[in-house]
Specification:
903 residues; 31 strands; 8-stranded parallel beta barrel; 8-stranded mixed sheet; alpha/beta; elongated
Length: 903
């Protein structure tokens, strides 16, 4: 007999959930339930789960049980409210709002005022005593429903609304009377019938069911998918749908709607932050269509609601132990909470708030470390405008998302994308942005709007992406049709340079020079946290970095090829060099010396070339070992594709042909061309390079090993502490490594005998070929360390040539969702990562003390650092500028794994 399973539950009342059910109820639904549990004033309602959305998206239809569950919850809501959905004489109206697990501001759909019809609008007018309010609510429903549910072009409604205001000679929609709005409703209904091929539905339940399906569908709109890719949100989560009884902020001057933050999301400072708009519904605030007043003004407008809101904000912040973003409505003096969530914040605010909450005893240092991330730290290291520079101030708006952005003015997303792809830096200028502008916002250096505040769409999305943004610059007259911006008598045409400061809200004409970030100055030792005049941001960064360094297991090294880079890396906290690319030492004037070595026909020519290179290499290594004294330095032996050191075959062929036509052929060029033809490779990245070059050109690797050993002996005799590690590149089989190591050991012994020093040089290899990873157990017999070269490993696992594919088809792969992110940016855990994991296990099984590191670009990528911690590497190595990011993420990975273990 089969076991009976309880039927799946698809709908939860707000009284049934809690904040920990975000996977099921989405962030909005889970938090509405949590606020209900806390006894806060939340309008009654219910949430349709993400599981219902997944069924709908997979099958193209809602689950069969869903309609009955919605009906049961709607009936309970109607009984509680004492009226029915769409009831003619006293209608219950509801909103249908999206709510995914992760916040996706403006990316999915919402419909307000569901339940209004030709019959019930009169009932709403009678019950509210405000005919204008009723018809305004009805026109809003038709407009939102038409655009969101029926796919009507929203511009058609906007144009009709603008025409109505123009005819009445008013500038804001609140100045339209009931009679004007009645006419507008007729126009809107005609637009729907003409564009959608059907009448606006008069049945309230049909409105609700269609709106629910539209919210499900909005999970897979182009803008939602683009936002998820940008924010790395999984595409299979689905969205919940929240059906909530309506409360109205557009009932007159004693009503309104607003957004509040428990701390400033731009700076992290405590205070009263947010926007309020009288006689308005919530969408008016976030759309930035009408300019709001600061939240602090609510105290003089409605002291009772203001005091209650302040108390609720304190309750929520203490409960969530974090900055909270709150949406609220006041209906005739009654405060209602419509949403709360942990608020998006700028990078600077994230660090400040984390340390503030530690000081308040709300969280501990481990939790503070989890509240920030490497991407935010990288943002703080970007330059800022030079305060001493000559500037031409155009105007000032609201500092919505910090940073210093310079670019050419563009007035639509299409141009922003087009110019950006051509290599231009652009500033996207709009009256206000909407979700359709997302691609342009991603392409732009910064965003500037003449309307909206810190809670407008532009501000919220920019903060989430780390983009510089200035909103609500009212003095700027933006004319998108003529593609220009006017400020007083100054006209900024499309293509003119502008600079925007997201920290002050200032907008400048032309290019303003930038200066280093104070955070970079701190890392370089030019600003000391804790001093009287130290910036509080630097102090916050210092505290969190100090904790990350205390708890992290992974050490962080630098990729550096010269003493200057090595010293900078050391100031940034590098604990050694994980990759010194010796081929970079042979560029410039030395290139011809390497060319002579490669093209040598006789032993004497080859030995002469090697003898000339040896002292130069030795001098390079002495400088490097001195700059990293006492810390390990991993020197990779020569690993260039040969073509990098040989003349271009086409240019050389042309030169020889021209010389022959003039009958003055150069014997050296003819010989060179013959040799280049002999060594020419169709795919040099997979040809004669790395260990293969060392085996084919006798004495090459021996010369480099001798230079390393002699430099180490020199430093040791000068009372230094050189810790050189010799790395053999592109090994695919243990036999290659054994041959090179035998030669290297002999050279080291010779240098030790000649200099009277005891050199403890270790020899290891790069794991950058799939075969090396698969035979790691064998290779570990001859290697004292592995360093994973994940750039080449990614190329060879995927069969990609990085230089070609990123320009040819990666964009299409990202757009189609084949990649969530480039595998060269974040390690491909399933493919490349599985090879790394198996090589770690096999290598350590052979040699338990095997040192393991990574030196590809992934060593500085936040997400990849967590993976390298998980698989048990000893260190990561990255470019000097990324070292603080890697240090922070290594600390976060350790704290995260410790927290998981304790659970």
């Amino acid at each position: 007999m089969s076991e009976n399973k309880d039927p799946q539950k698809f709908v939860y009342d707000f009284t049934e959930g809690n904040k920990d059910l975000k996977d099921l109820l989405g962030g909005k639904g889970a938090n509405l339930a949590e606020m209900t549990n806390l006894g806060l004033p939340v309008p009654p309602g219910f949430t349709i789960t993400t599981e219902a959305c997944k069924v709908y998206l997979d099958s193209g239809d809602a689950p069969t049980e869903l309609r009955d569950e919605v009906s049961a919850h709607l009936k309970a809501l109607e009984e509680r409210m004492g009226k029915q959905l769409g009831q003619a004489d006293d209608p219950l109206l509801v909103s249908v709002r999206s709510g995914a697990k992760f916040s996706m501001p403006g990316m999915m759909d919402t419909v307000l005022n569901i339940g209004l019809s030709d019959a019930s609008v009169a009932g709403l007018a009678a019950q509210s005593g405000d005919e204008r309010f009723a018809w305004d609510s009805y026109r809003r429903l038709i407009q939102m429903f038409g655009k969101t549910v029926l796919g009507v072009d929203g511009e058609l409604f906007e144009e009709a609304l603008e025409a109505a205001k123009h005819a009445k000679k008013v500038t804001v929609d609140t100045d339209l009377a009931a009679a004007d709005l009645k006419k507008l409703v007729k126009q809107f209904k005609k637009i729907v019938e003409s564009e959608a091929g059907r009448e606006f539905p008069q049945d309230a339940r049909e409105q609700m069911d269609l709106a629910i399906n539209a919210v499900f569908d909005s999970w897979n709109t182009d803008r939602a998918k683009l936002y998820r890719r940008q924010e790395r949100i999984p595409g299979d989560l689905g969205t919940a749908v929240n059906v909530c009884s309506m409360v109205f902020g557009n009932l007159g001057p004693d009503s309104g709607t607003g957004v509040a933050f428990t701390r400033d999301p731009a700076s992290g400072h405590q205070g009263v932050y947010g926007d309020y708009l009288q006689n308005a519904q919530g969408e008016d605030v976030v759309a930035g269509i009408r300019n709001t007043v600061p939240l602090a003004d609510l105290e003089s407008i409605d002291k009772k609601s203001y005091d209650q809101l302040m108390q609720i904000m304190e309750t929520l912040e203490n409960h969530y132990k974090d900055l909270c973003d709150i949406e609220f409505t006041i209906e005739r003096g009654q405060l209602w909470m419509l949403q709360t969530r942990v608020g998006k914040r700028t990078a600077g605010a994230a660090f400040r708030i984390a340390t503030q909450l530690v000081d308040q005893g709300l969280i501990d240092e481990a939790e503070a470390l989890q509240r920030v991330n490497g991407a935010q730290l990288a943002q703080l290291m970007f330059p800022r405008f030079d305060e001493g520079a000559k500037t031409e101030l155009l105007g000032r708006g609201i500092a919505a998302s910090p940073g210093a952005a310079v670019g050419k003015a563009v007035f639509d997303s299409y141009t922003a994308i087009k110019w950006s792809r051509s290599g231009e830096k652009v500033i996207l200028i709009r009256r206000e942005t909407n979700p359709d502008d997302l691609e342009g916002m991603i392409a732009a250096e910064g965003i500037l709007t003449s309307r909206g505040g810190k809670t407008s769409h532009a501000a919220v999305v920019a903060r989430g992406m780390g983009k510089t943004c200035v909103c609500g610059a009212e003095d700027l007259e933006v004319d998108t049709k003529r593609r220009r911006m006017t400020v007083g008598g100054t006209v900024i045409e499309e293509g003119d340079l502008v600079s925007i400061d997201g920290s002050t809200g200032k907008v400048y004409r032309g290019e303003v020079p930038v200066v280093p970030s104070p955070v970079v100055e701190y890392f370089e030792g030019r600003m000391h946290a804790g001093a009287d005049d130290a910036d509080e941001l630097v102090a916050a960064v210092h505290r969190i970095m100090a904790y990350a360094d205390r708890v992290r297991r992974l050490r962080v090294r630098a990729n550096a090829d010269n003493a200057e880079d090595a010293l900078r890396a050391r100031r940034f906290g590098a604990q050694g060099i994980g990759l010194c690319r010796t081929e970079h030492m042979f560029l410039g004037e030395r290139r011809e010396m390497v060319e002579k070595l490669i093209l040598a026909d006789t032993d004497d020519e080859r030995e002469s070339a090697l003898a000339a290179l040896l002292p130069l290499q030795k001098a390079d290594f002495i400088e490097l070992f001195e700059s990293m004294d006492g810390l390990p330095v991993t020197v990779r032996l020569l690993d260039p594709p040969l073509h990098e050191f040989l003349p271009d075959i086409t240019e050389l062929s042309v030169r020889v042909a021209l010389a022959e036509s003039r009958k003055d052929a150069n014997e050296n060029d003819l010989r060179l061309l013959q040799a280049v033809h002999k060594l020419h490779e169709q795919n040099p990245m997979l040809g004669l390079r790395g260990v293969r070059l060392g085996l084919v050109i006798p004495g090459l690797f021996a010369m480099q090993v001798r230079a390393i050993a002699e430099a180490a002996a020199h430093r040791k005799n000068a009372k230094g502490d050189p810790r050189a590690e010799i790395m053999i590149p592109l090994v695919g089989t243990v036999q290659e490594l054994e041959i090179v190591r035998e030669e290297a050991d002999r050279v080291i012994e010779e240098v030790q005998a000649a200099t009277g020093t005891d050199l403890k040089l270790t020899i290891g290899t790069m794991i950058e070929l799939p075969r090396a990873a698969l035979t790691a157990a064998q290779i570990a017999e001859a290697a004292q360390f592995f360093s994973f070269g994940t750039n080449d490993l990614t190329q060879t696992v995927w069969g990609f040539s990085r230089d070609d594919v990123e320009a040819s088809f990666f964009t299409a792969y990202l757009e189609k969702g084949i990649f969530g992110v480039s595998p060269f940016e974040t390690i491909d855990k399933d493919g490349v990562g599985s090879l790394v994991r198996s090589a770690v296990e096999a290598g350590r099984a052979t040699r338990p003390d095997l040192k393991l590191g990574v030196c590809g670009e992934h060593g500085g990528d936040p997400e990849s650092v967590h993976f390298f911690h998980e698989v048990g590497l000893d260190y990561v190595s990255c470019s000097p500028f990324r070292i603080p990011v890697a240090r922070l993420e290594a600390g976060r990975a350790a704290a995260e794994s410790k927290g998981s273990d304790s659970r």
